[in-house]
Specification:
The structure is a single chain. By secondary structure, the chain is α/β, with parallel strands linked by helices. It has 8 helices and 11 strands. It has one domain: Divalent-metal-dependent TIM barrel enzymes (TIM Barrel, Alpha-Beta Barrel), CATH 3.20.20.150. Helix content is 46%, strand content 18%. Helix 3 packs across helix 4 and helix 7 packs parallel to helix 8.
Length: 250
């Protein structure tokens, strides 16, 4: 399971008890929405300390965030793309190291969807790889975001996957999206996963083996059996990925 820590920090009473009961039953990772790891404002260290306290409280094994910025003199309430430059790599890596010092372990950053191309000296994959290398952070691999970006920015999603350094992938996101136009996809988490995204997930498993994977669905929730069919498809692909990895070792 995955939860946004901003929604649960300081929550007590009945909802707090229910959340902690869920954490006793299932492993919960914390996936943040407001760290602003790429922004110009100072890191909100009070938030980070509160995240660490919540991790300790519920036994969360991991804190992840988005490789984006979301604040300039206050929150913008959107996840915006960072310029793909060496300067930005150094800026982000310094901030990641600060966060990791407070959390006491590596965090994972997610490759994000974006709709306007930032200034670039590096490719997106080179930028993500450099941030990992410079900061020592892990990667939350969002397969749907790769597909959405590939359509919107006209690149091959498999070439992008091959260009990523996947040695530090902690887990994977899989989700549906909205078709605004044939050449414009919007990452919404409000629809079923489509076949090209399933195929890309299978390709990721062939490289990584059966990495833990989260199915994201934020609204337009179908009946539970429909969601469980998607979960079953994830597990079937993980099984195939395990066999592929075993065959490669032989």
């Amino acid at each position: 399971m995955e939860a946004a820590p901003e929604n649960w920090i300081g929550v007590g009473g009945r909802f707090g008890r229910q959340f902690r009961a869920m954490a006793e039953r299932y492993p919960i990772v914390l996936h943040g929405l407001s760290l602003d790891i790429g922004g110009p404002d100072p890191i909100d260290t009070e938030l980070v300390r509160a995240v660490r306290a919540l991790m300790s409280d519920i036994g969360a094994p991991l804190y992840s965030e988005h490789l984006t910025y979301c604040a300039v003199d206050g929150h913008l309430y959107d996840l915006l793309p960072i310029p793909f430059t060496e300067e930005a790599v150094r800026h982000v890596a310094e901030r990641v190291r600060l966060v990791q010092d407070i959390i006491g372990q590596p965090i994972a950053l997610e490759n994000a969807s974006y709709y306007a191309q930032p200034y670039t000296d590096l490719t997106e994959a080179q930028f993500i790889n450099a941030v990992q290398c410079e900061s020592g952070c892990d990667l939350l691999l969002d397969v749907n975001n790769i597909y959405v970006n590939a359509i919107n920015h006209c690149y091959d999603p498999y070439d992008f996957l091959d260009a990523l350094s996947l040695d530090r992938v902690r887990y994977i996101h899989i989700a549906g999206h909205y078709d605004e136009a044939p050449d414009l996809k919007v990452d919404t988490h409000g629809a079923a996963v489509i076949d090209p995204v399933w195929d890309l997930l299978a390709a990721a498993y062939r490289r990584l083996g059966p990495v833990p994977t989260l199915l994201e669905r934020d609204f337009n929730l179908p009946p539970l059996p429909h969601l469980l069919q998607e979960v079953a498809r994830v597990r079937a692909l993980q099984h195939d990925g395990r066999r592929s990895a075993a065959g490669a070792q032989c």
